[in-house]
């Protein structure tokens, strides 16, 4: 696991991804140069990284699906690496469970999703079968998860004040380009973003403030799972009475172990992704869920054996960041 000081730095950046180094350093009791240098070292070693991607009402206008893939013997990793190179594939994981690979797929429309699955995924050598479920609602995702290494006072000092939007968001090609640029460097200055996008710095600041205020862009500080206080990823497929889906999902979303909670279109209608200290923690977690939410039925479960890609970042055999594929969900779908 990372040192306590590095975990605090990661937690601070999870709370305020674009907070200045001077404020971050002062909050953590170190100099700004020291904080920046330590972060650069973590990134260089692939132990932590920052990313950005669409969220809120922007991602709600796109189509999200989860694809379960069965592969021929020995072909799971080659298939996973081929899919990980695609911009519409956000995350790829190799599982111990009812399928070999689990893929998060995001595209402009349902038609684009079907084109990708039928003409790209299904034609890959080594793919034996694929099952797709659509997600009509994302209740929470990984940008909310915290290392929980800093104090409540430090977190409050770093938290970005919440603002209430006063007008509808008019999402433009500039906003799209801004999100893609932040995906490459989430801490890029307004001046450098303006130069890249060909607009004024004041325009960049105004659009970025609007996107952040509405949750239309997610800025996320990630930690390599093997170095995390919770290195084990587990997935649960749940069946919940439709009239209890909303309240159940909201109850699950606030649990500290939960990385993602999404409604899905299959026999199970809710999917949960959790980060745990050990694979043995799945049993007490399931017991706690059953006691707290007795109407909830666990339909299936799986444990991640290896991460191949996590929200655009390619992972090596040790789970460290080893490259990046831009999350351009708006791009033309390969094979369509």
Report on this model:
The chain has twelve helices and 13 strands. A hairpin with a 5-residue loop joins strand 12 (313-315) and strand 13. Helix content is 35%, strand content 27%. By secondary structure, it is of the alpha+beta class. Helix 2 (21-28) packs across helix 3 (32-44) and helix 9 (190-197) packs across helix 10 (201-213).
Helix content: 25-40%
Supply the helix-strand structural class: alpha+beta
Number of helices: 12
Q: Biggest sheet: strands, sense, closure?
A: 11 strands, antiparallel
Mean of pLDDT: 95
Order of helices and strands: HHHEHEHEEHEEHHHHEEHEEHEEE
Number of strands: 13
> In percent, how much strand structure appears in the residues?
25-35%
What is this structure, in a nutshell?
By secondary structure, the protein is of the alpha+beta class.
């Amino acid at each position: 696991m990372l040192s306590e000081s590095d975990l605090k730095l990661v937690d601070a950046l999870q709370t305020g991804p674009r907070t200045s180094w001077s404020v971050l350093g002062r909050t953590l009791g170190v100099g700004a140069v020291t904080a920046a240098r330590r972060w650069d070292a973590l990134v260089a070693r692939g132990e932590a990284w920052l990313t950005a991607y669409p969220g809120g009402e922007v991602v709600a206008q796109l189509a999200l699906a989860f694809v379960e893939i069965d592969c021929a013997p020995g072909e799971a990793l080659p298939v996973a690496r081929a899919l990980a190179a695609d911009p519409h594939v956000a995350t790829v994981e190799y599982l111990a469970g009812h399928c070999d690979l689990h893929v998060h797929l995001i595209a402009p429309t349902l038609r684009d999703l079907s084109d990708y699955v039928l003409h790209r995924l299904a034609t890959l050598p080594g793919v034996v079968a694929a099952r797709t479920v659509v997600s009509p609602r994302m209740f929470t995702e990984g940008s909310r998860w915290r290392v929980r290494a800093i104090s409540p006072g430090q977190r409050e000092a770093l938290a970005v004040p919440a603002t209430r939007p006063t007008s509808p968001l008019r999402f433009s090609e500039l906003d799209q380009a801004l999100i893609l640029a932040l995906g490459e460097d989430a801490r890029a200055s307004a001046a450098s973003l303006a130069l890249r996008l060909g607009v004024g710095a004041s325009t960049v600041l105004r659009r970025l403030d609007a996107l952040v205020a509405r949750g239309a862009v997610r800025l996320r500080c990630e930690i390599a799972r093997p170095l995390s206080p919770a290195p084990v990823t587990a997935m649960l497929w749940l069946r919940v009475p439709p009239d209890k889906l909303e309240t159940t999902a909201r109850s699950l979303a606030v649990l500290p172990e939960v990385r993602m909670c999404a409604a899905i279109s299959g026999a199970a209608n809710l999917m949960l992704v959790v980060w745990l200290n050990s694979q043995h923690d799945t049993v007490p977690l399931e017991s706690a869920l059953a006691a707290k939410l007795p109407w909830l039925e666990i339909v299936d479960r799986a444990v991640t054996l290896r991460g191949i890609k996590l929200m655009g970042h390619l992972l090596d055999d040790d789970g460290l960041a080893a490259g990046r594929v831009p999350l351009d969900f708006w791009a033309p779908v390969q094979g369509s």
